[in-house]
C-alpha cells in the first residue's frame, strides 16, 4: 500500500488560526453602534483636507516676504499637498502675471496665501515658482547649474526693491513641472534672461536673495 502523507498546516495557516477572532455585535443596539462607527469613519476619510477647504488667494509681493524662512523643498512629494495646494496654485498663477507695465516675470510661493474659515492666512510653504509666459510654467524644486566657463551677464532683478547682479549667462534648469504631472525636467536655459530669472527664483525660494 502507498504510504499516506500527513497533511501539515502551513506556517501562515497556523499563525492565523491562533489569532483571536473579533467578536461580532450580538444585539440590535450593538449593530446600530457598529453602523454609526463605520459611517463616522467613512465621513472622516472622505472629508476634504484643511488645505483643500482653505481659500487660495494671491498676495502682492512685499518686503516682509523676504523675511520668511526658506520654502519647504519636499512639500511637493506629498500627493495630497500637490492636489490640494500646488495644482490650484498652478491654475491661479497665470491670472496674476499682469500685462504691460504691470507684467511680472515670476510668482513665488510667498505670493499665495491659504486662508481658513476663521480668516487666518499662511503663505504656501513649498518650493514652487511660476514663470509667467505663453504658456507659463509652474515649477517645484527648481535648481540651477551654471555652465562651466559661461560668461557673466548683469541681471536686473526685482522683488519690491530693484537690484543688479552679475550672474552666469548660461546653465541648466532642473525641476518638476506641475502642469505635466510633476514630470522631472532638465534643460538648458533658453537665453540669458531665463538664466537670470532662474537664479533669482532659487534665491527667493531659499530666502537668500540680497
Strand content: 25-35%
Strand order of the largest sheet: 2-5-6-9-10
Q: Ranges with pLDDT <50 over ≥5 residues?
A: 42-48
Biggest sheet overview: 5 strands, antiparallel
Q: Could you list some keywords that capture this structure?
A:
210 residues; 28% helix; elongated; Peptide Deformylase; alpha+beta
Structure description:
- With 210 residues, this protein is of the alpha+beta class.
- It has one domain: Peptide deformylase (Peptide Deformylase), CATH 3.90.45.
- Helices cover 28% and strands 27% of the residues.
- It is built from five helices and ten strands; from the N terminus they run H-H-H-E-H-E-E-E-E-E-E-E-E-E-H.
- The chain has a five-stranded antiparallel beta sheet with strand order 2-5-6-9-10. The protein has a three-stranded antiparallel beta sheet with strand order 1-3-4.
- The chain is elongated and about 80 Å long.
- It starts with 10 loop residues before the first helix and ends in a 5-residue tail after the last helix.
- The model is unreliable at 42-48 (pLDDT under 50).
